[in-house]
Amino acid sequence: MKMQFMLLFSRQGKLRLQKWYVPLSDKEKKKITRELVQTVLARKPKMCSFLEWRDLKIVYKRYASLYFCCAIEDQDNELITLEIIHRYVELLDKYFGSVCELDIIFNFEKAYFILDEFLLGGEAQETSKKNVLKAIEQADLLQETPVPHPDLSGSLDSWVDTLKDFHRPSSDQLPAMHIFVHVTFIFWGR
Amino acid sequence: MSDVVEKTLTALPSLLSLDSQPGSAKLSTNSKLGNLIRGITELTSKHEEEKLIQRELLSIKEQVSSPNTTMRQMKELMVRTIYCEMLGYQASFSYIHAIKLAQQGNVLEKRVGYLAVSLFLDESHELLLLLVNTVLKDLQSTNLIEVCMALTVVSQMFPKDMIPAILPLVEEKLSHSKEIIRRKAVLALYKFYLIAPNQVQHIHNKFRKALCDKDPGVMSASLHIYLQLIQENPEGYKDLTVSFVTILKQVVAGKLPMDFNYHCVPAPWLQIHLLRILSLLGKNDQSTSEIMYEILDESLRRAEMNHNITYAILYECVKCIYTIHPKSDLLEKAAKCIGNFVLSSRINLKYLGLKALTYVVQQDPKLVLQHQMTIIECLDHPDLIIKRETLELLFRITNAQNVTVIVEKMLDFLRVSKDDHTTIDLVGKVAELAEKYATDNEWFIETMNTVFSVGGDMMQPDIPNSFLKLLLDGFDSVEEDRKLRLFAVNSYISLLQGEPSRLPQRFLQVISWVLGEYSHLNGDLEPDVVLRLLAKLLDMKSSSSETKSWVLMAMTKLCSGGAALSVAREVSETYGSSMDTMLRQRAQELQHLSQDSQLQTRVLPQSSSQEAVEVDSSLSFLDWFVSEALAAGAAPYKPPHQRQEEMSRSKALSLEPYGLSLPISMSSCSVADRQSPTLLSMSSGLSGDSTELSHKGSSTTLKLDGVKRVWGREGYLAQREPEEEAAQVETPAPLQSPSQQGDKDSSHSQAPTPTQTPESEQEKQQLASSLFVGLASQSSASLMGKSEQTSQRFRRKARSPDKSLSSSEQLTNPLGSPSSGADNLLLDCSISSELVSAPEQTHLQSLDLTAANSACDAPDGDTKGRKTLSRDDSVSAADVTPHEDPDRPKDLRLASYLPAELSGLSGLPHSEITLVCSNQSLDLSACHVQKDDSLEFVVFIKNSSDTSVHQVQVQVSCEELEVSCVCDSPAEELKSHSVTVCQYRLTVKRPSVYFELAGVVHYQLPAGSLQTEQFSHKLPLKSFIRPLAVSTEDYGTMWLAFSHDTKQNLPLLSDEQEPLTATLNVLKKKLQLHVVEIIGKEGIVACCLRPDQPCLLHCREHAGMLAVWLRSPVPDLPDCLLYHCQRALRER
Fold it and tell me: Using a CB-CB distance cutoff of 8 angstroms, which residues of chain A are in contact with residue B115?
């Protein structure tokens, strides 16, 4: 069941988060990242979410402008990995409150903390959403100020552009992160 | 969408009037990261980014090393460093500061410190040692969050050697009142189990407690450990089956708290974990399987929602049902489930459906027939991964009747695939199928041509090797052999006449070899035509020097008189002065042999006799070289496994996967591999052999047990020969019927499809009937037995079984590939010189080289390595076990000088007395006598001269042994032809496979000159091994206490009635081990070197191998002992 690594990268191929659960050299990591980003970005939306890559299976899914990409072993269950990604997105969504790529860019350490509470050493550690978030919030409580918003003073134009780009509706039916707001609302409402 | 837009819009005003925001104070500290990120987004080129980051890193470096930086600032700096590292810029200077931050910061800073550590370092990083104290402190902290952080980091990475330091603290946390702490502690122990299983063995009962924890989180965390444990030893945990089933029942029934639900499905991860465990437990075990039938049925029934997560559970359920002991109604339901997957319009589900089909096809080929049209559609699917999985499925159902279609499909795929890994894998599969099911020569050669062209230089080297071996060995019919070879020759000639520069190097090498050996079979082909074609290869720029060597070797075989000579002369002149020593060597050979026709006919007779060449695998012809090198002060040889051991020790952490070592039958990487790393590297990994592949995939992939193979990687599988032979005789008749039957069946299954199919449909159906032919018959004949119905066309020629072992060594590289590297040169020379003197046929050269090459490729592939191969052999042959009769006439005279307590009267047998050194005046001989607590080493000094010798003194020493003198040479004067004796007691200081005793003898001749003579004597470890009589209980306690261990699979004497007992008895007899107890398929054995140097062996019969696990408190001892066990079993 062990996951080998998890990568988050943007549609432009920029790495946003990386977590390696197997020891690899920096060179190897860079090579893998480069190859995978290229391969995954080249895939069409209707294609299979699974990829064979070297002797590993890659499971990826796109949420708005972000690609979530995990590597597992061949005999592992691809579908459950897909749902691990989804659960992670749910957790991010709940924590940041309707998460978007910017939250992850500017608070990547928070995204790491959440990931570490959810997956430990490549294995699902805690699958109860409540428990994961409780653990994170307890640690956060020691922080006096709330989660900061990105500081966008200066060169505002470029940021506005980025935001526009970020919210531009894509032609294909992508699972956008904000869909979660509805989905999760239904479940948490109970 | 609107939500996000809204969010942004509400954020915008606040961005514009930032100053008024309440959080601005906080933001200013964070703004440096903001600036950095923003800066990077503005940049347009990679180059600019690099400059910016380098500047950033420089400033960070300055700040972190400044003593004035507060921890709070350090935290911010660390976040920025993480960002830089993520962009791919190394910031190794910061690693130490990350550790410092984790150590000194307050909780929040510590958190970032730990995060940075876990992102920057991996578990082999040396700085991690500095973290141990911090972890230790935090584990003892009263702040729960600190404890959590420490446990989190420990579960991600921790130095193996430091586990004992924190283990008690982690263990203590198992009974902590907070569930989160217990859960993390369990996961930390899981991590420890993965990297050092013996360290946590004593807490197995605590794992059980964790399994029974009232908190579901802790319980599911403990399943990680159990999955691992059960994978390694399913027998040991059968008693837990009921508990796992009960847990699953409760989960499925929704008894867990709501927040474990995921999209209304109760704890899916937990369910999948449990299903996986159950399938391991129920495999090949009817009674255990029966316990789980009910819950499996229930799980199938409950998973009805149309959501990925239910499909994930269903998939796992189906796999479990097909893995455990079969139950018909469950199988039916599972099959229906697979059908739903395959037919699904969702591509992810379709993929899983194909994967499941591949998994079950061996058990249920009819299921494939049901879905044949879908499979055909998938073959043309635009997404390559679907295609790939379909091919994988087809590979599993290949038989002699559909092989052509399937191979064609695979080759089609290979032509479009760009992925190296896929290519290597598929090429291997095609080669395997082609060899196994080839229908005729033409098809076989052409398929292999495509394999070589497409596979190129990436493919596994054993593919060309085994292809050539097949050509070389031939089959049972000489005429068939000739036809195949002739066809190959003709096909290659036409390839060379085309555009050879496009062909991969490996293929050119194969072509050269075949033409060199067999082009004479084509009577119409003049040798000079072939030579010219070959010479063209030499001129090509793209040819590697390795290929050129092959070409030159082929030319050497061909240049017999006439016009050929001029070509040969030309070539040898060009390359006779090549800078490449290897080419020069070959060119010289060519030149000499082409000029001396007499010599040539002697060395390379044109006979096609198939006599196996006796290979001197011990390389005894190099003995002189060995002794010279030793005399010149060369370092003594270390066997490869010892070298590997040392290497891995210097690297500190072994990167080998732990789970794989014991339970998986390493079909080919068995005994020989420890000795020859080449074999290992070639047979492991992604070879073309599907059986091995499936082993690699351990639990989930299929095992092609039923497919009989006459040849395995080890060579000829002798014991199967008789039945194979029988099958061969009667092939013609049964071969017909299944195919007809198959046709009938497949037409049956097609019947329901409508008749008004358009043309494309018809095409598909045609394809279907050619693809799935023979499947139905297979299923009707034997579902579980899976016997191979068709005969193999290319059955390799039988060899006498006793040769099989040595031939496996040759197999490594039947070509004697002239591998590059100067190391080889010397060896090649000596071999070539032998070649000239030995009147053997052409294959001699290649075969001899083979043995040499396999030694060369060893990591330390130097001359030492090679020579010791022979050395070890001769030594061990000379080494006499104490049980052997020592009465040899030559010995007798010296033996009478043995000290009284050691002489034959005392009942202690001595080893053969061997001459260790001799000159005009003295003869030194030595032998050893095994006593219960030590080894007595006796040196006999005989004065062989006619005058007496004075002041004889002998000194013996050895680094790894403790040598104490029992009685020193007492003789002031040693009279002519008299003998004196020195006796030493040897005990082991440090284990080693062989102990090299170095001795010096000083003596004074009558003339007054002082003389010194050196000698050496080699003792194997096994002379020091003594049985250790312990009870099973004592064994148990000792086992847990020992820290050094090794696991390895050894061959089992499977031809005996009780293989395990027989094998252990051989070990007992040869190595004096003490067999403590044998229970069923397991046996425990103990021995020791000294009473305080015990070594325990745990032996388990597993998949036709003997899985041995050795443990000892003495480093190296398990490895050394293993070496002798291997030898003992091999030499039986």
Answer: 109, 112-113, 116
Query: What 3-state class would DSSP assign to B157?
Result: coil
Give the gap in angstroms from C-alpha A67 to the nearest C-alpha of chain B.
16
B124 touches chain A (CB under 8 A): yes
Q: How far is CA B457 from CA B446, B504, B551, B942, in A?
A: 18, 6, 17, 62
Question: What tens digit of pLDDT does each residue of B313-357 get?
Answer: 999 999 999 999 999 999 999 998 999 898 888 899 999 999 999
Nearest-neighbour CA in chain B from A42: distance (Å):
12
Q: Based on C-alpha coordinates, what's the Rg of chain B? A: 35
Give contacts of B267 with chain A, Cβ < 8 Å. Answer: 127
Structure tokens, B408: 């064609």
Secondary structure (3-state) at B457: coil
- H helices of B43-87, in order, are 46-65, 71-86
Residues of A in contact with B273 (CB under 8 A): 1
| Tokens 């592949």 sit on residue | B693
Lowest mean pLDDT, pick from B249-258, B645-654, B697-706: B697-706
Number of residues written out for chain A: 190
Q: Residue B25's pLDDT is what?
A: 34
Measured CA to CA, the distance from residue B950 to residue B1019 in angstroms comes to 29
Per-residue burial over B242-252, b if 16 or more Cβ lie within 10 Å, else e, is: eebbebbeebb
> pLDDT-derived band of residue B256, with 50, 70 and 90 as boundaries?
confident
Q: What are the φ and ψ backbone dihedral angles of B1020, each rounded to 5 degrees?
A: -80, 155
How much is the average pLDDT of B824-852?
38
Q: How far is B402 from chain A (nearest CA, A)?
A: 26
- Closest approach of chain A CAs to the CA of B420, in angstroms? 8
Q: How many CA atoms are closer than 13 Å to the CA of B1039, on its beta-carbon side? A: 21
Inform me whether the pLDDT recorded for B799 exceeds 50: no
Q: Which amino acid is at B356?
A: A
Reduced DSSP (H G I as helix, E B as strand, rest coil) percent helix, strand, coil of chain B, to 5: 60, 10, 30
B9 touches chain A (CB under 8 A): no
Facing A52 at nearest CB: one of B259, B382, B385: B385
**Are A158 and B270 within 8 A, CB to CB?**
no
Q: For chain B, how many residues are written?
A: 1132
Residue A120 and residue B156 in contact, taking contact as beta carbons nearer than 8 Å = yes
pLDDT at B138: 92
Residue that the structure tokens 């030493």 belong to: B984
Residue B191 to residues B194, B217, B415, B416, Cα–Cα distance (Å): 5, 17, 43, 42
Q: Is the ipTM of this complex over 0.90?
A: no
DSSP chain A: ----EEEEEETTS-EEEEEESS---HHHHHHHHHHHHHHHHTS-TTS-SEEEETTEEEEEEEETTEEEEEEEETTS-HHHHHHHHHHHHHHHHHHHTS--HHHHHHTHHHHHHHHHHHEETTEE----HHHHHHHHHHHHTTSSSPPPPPP--S-HHHHHHHHHHHHSPPSS----TTHHHHHHHHHHT-
Residues B734-764: b if buried by 16+ CB within 10 A, e if exposed: eeeebbebbbebbeebeeeeeeeeeeeeeeb
What is the DSSP track for B1011-1049? EEEEEEEEEEGGGG-EE----HHHHHHHHHH--EEEEEE
Q: Model's pTM, two decimal places? A: 0.60
pLDDT tens digits for B1025-1076? 888 888 888 888 888 778 777 787 888 877 777 888 888 888 888 888 888 8
Q: Report the distance separating Cα B578 and Cα B595, nearest Å.
A: 20
pLDDT of A112 reads 93
Phi, psi for residue B215 in degrees, rounded to 5? -90, 130
Q: Which amino acid is at A20?
A: W
Asked if B699 reaches chain A (Cβ–Cβ under 8 Å), the answer is yes
Tell whether B6 lies on the interface with A, counting CB pairs under 8 A.
no
